[in-house]
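re: ur question from earlier - yeah i can do the single chain one, its not a big deal. heres the input i used so u can compare w yours
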Amino acid sequence: MSLLAVLLALAIGTFLVARGQLNDGAVPSARSLLAPGQPRTAMAIWAHPDDEITSAGTLANLAREGATVVLVYVTRGEAARDTGYSREDLAEVRRKEAQAAGATLGAHAVEVLEWPDGGLATADGEAIKAVLRERIDHWRPSLLISFDERVGYYGHPDHIAVGRWARELAREDNSIRRLYQATLPRAMIRLALKLVAAFRDNYPSAPEAGLPAPTVAVPIAGQASVKRRLLDVHASQAKVIADVQPGYDRVPAWLYYRLFDREYFALAVSK
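and the output i got, formated as tokens:
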């Protein structure tokens, strides 16, 4: 065997070991989160434009398989810091980025609401749920995707509030048959606590207060280029994205999303 072949074999072996250590092979894999026989409409409810990055490959998969995908953002994300924009200008910039994100993912519709960014924890939850309930009644999704209500992915109060409302709405007697919450396996949480400032600064130290354990993993390597383009769509959030997706801009997308080749979810409501 030539030296080049040996080096290539070592590189592939190292890559496979790293991928195995990051992912949880015990979590069942599924290509779609839609329940068999249910209407093929999926709604994702997020706090801010760019939150959909947590589930971008899955959402793109749903759109590719012919599902109607609807993205709903409760705020315009105007409170983000260090962007160079005023709050008013940033709200409009991020609204446009949300629309572009929907187009990138193949979403059927994007709806950006205007509750205050950074203020959802103290906002009128019943008023917000009333609007979200109306959107659910309009689109009749059988699948809902959102944050968890315990830690909101990494501890953001807006995410936690949205996760709580999503669970409450999913439990109602409506079209929703499944609610999945974006989450991570333990190995990825440990890595995020080392590399991602948002996790280091906000994630709870007690394991029982953290993310729910994943119940399903969705393979997303086939959507690598889509997820990479999505990151560029949110140009106003370049600093944040560089934090939560470390090294994404220095590694080819086809390789990066073969290392991080799954998105994880916890089934929170099933009817």
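DSSP finds eleven helices and seven strands in the chain. not sure if urs matches, ping me
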